[in-house]
């Protein structure tokens, strides 16, 4: 029996309600054969859980963290405050402000604590996963090959003309 591989990507989100967005990123990590873990960690509702998660992330073997949150989306920034691992922030689309609040909360980090900010919603979740794959591909040939194959398949799938 094979033991499950140790996750190299941590996917965290502020609420169960973010999963509908963040699952698209996880589907891409699956497709690229990248081991990851998924947790609900809220900057506001579970601040101690966040601090513990981020502070222990590197020693637990994580290499990249993807953090999705909506509204007053402090999760990616506070996560980056606790760890020097790369943190990619996904602004989840909020009902009231369509995710512009999430985007601005995540993107406007003070110099010194970076968060790589992606697009609002599903595209951002997918691209966060692909960026994580790019980072991991620097030291993992298998991921590098699978990422190149993904890009080639994507290119091949674009029709010359609309149907
Ligand atoms: C944020 O508040 C979460 O990231 C979520 O996007 C938003 C709403 O959370 P719920 O009220 O749906 O739990 O912390």
TrEMBL record:
<keyword id="KW-0456">Lyase</keyword>
<comment type="function">
    <text>Catalyzes the conversion of N5-carboxyaminoimidazole ribonucleotide (N5-CAIR) to 4-carboxy-5-aminoimidazole ribonucleotide (CAIR).</text>
</comment>
<dbReference type="InterPro" id="IPR024694">
    <property type="entry name" value="PurE_prokaryotes"/>
</dbReference>
<feature type="domain" description="PurE">
    <location>
        <begin position="7"/>
        <end position="158"/>
    </location>
</feature>
<feature type="binding site">
    <location>
        <position position="15"/>
    </location>
    <ligand>
        <name>substrate</name>
    </ligand>
</feature>
<comment type="pathway">
    <text>Purine metabolism; IMP biosynthesis via de novo pathway; 5-amino-1-(5-phospho-D-ribosyl)imidazole-4-carboxylate from 5-amino-1-(5-phospho-D-ribosyl)imidazole (N5-CAIR route): step 2/2.</text>
</comment>
<dbReference type="GO" id="GO:0034023">
    <property type="term" value="F:5-(carboxyamino)imidazole ribonucleotide mutase activity"/>
</dbReference>
<keyword id="KW-0658">Purine biosynthesis</keyword>
<protein>
    <recommendedName>
        <fullName>N5-carboxyaminoimidazole ribonucleotide mutase</fullName>
        <ecNumber>5.4.99.18</ecNumber>
    </recommendedName>
</protein>
<feature type="binding site">
    <location>
        <position position="45"/>
    </location>
    <ligand>
        <name>substrate</name>
    </ligand>
</feature>
<dbReference type="Pfam" id="PF00731">
    <property type="entry name" value="AIRC"/>
</dbReference>
<dbReference type="InterPro" id="IPR033747">
    <property type="entry name" value="PurE_ClassI"/>
</dbReference>
<comment type="similarity">
    <text>Belongs to the AIR carboxylase family. Class I subfamily.</text>
</comment>
<dbReference type="InterPro" id="IPR000031">
    <property type="entry name" value="PurE_dom"/>
</dbReference>
<keyword id="KW-0413">Isomerase</keyword>
<feature type="binding site">
    <location>
        <position position="18"/>
    </location>
    <ligand>
        <name>substrate</name>
    </ligand>
</feature>
<dbReference type="GO" id="GO:0004638">
    <property type="term" value="F:phosphoribosylaminoimidazole carboxylase activity"/>
</dbReference>
């Amino acid at each position: 029996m094979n033991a499950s591989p140790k996750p190299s990507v941590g996917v965290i989100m502020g609420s169960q309600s973010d999963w509908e967005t963040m699952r698209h990123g996880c589907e891409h990590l699956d497709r690229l054969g990248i081991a990851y873990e998924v947790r609900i960690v809220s900057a506001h509702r579970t601040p101690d859980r966040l601090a513990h998660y981020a502070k222990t992330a590197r020693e637990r073997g994580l290499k990249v963290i993807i953090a999705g949150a909506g509204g007053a989306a402090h999760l990616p920034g506070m996560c980056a405050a606790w760890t020097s691992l790369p943190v990619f922030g996904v602004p989840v689309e909020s009902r009231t402000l369509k995710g512009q609040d999430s985007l601005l909360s995540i993107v406007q980090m003070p110099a010194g604590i970076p968060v790589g900010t992606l697009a609002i919603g599903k595209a951002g979740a997918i691209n966060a996963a692909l960026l994580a794959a790019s980072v991991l591909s620097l030291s993992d040939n298998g991921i590098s090959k699978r990422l190149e194959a993904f890009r080639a398949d994507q290119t091949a799938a674009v029709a010359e003309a609309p149907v």
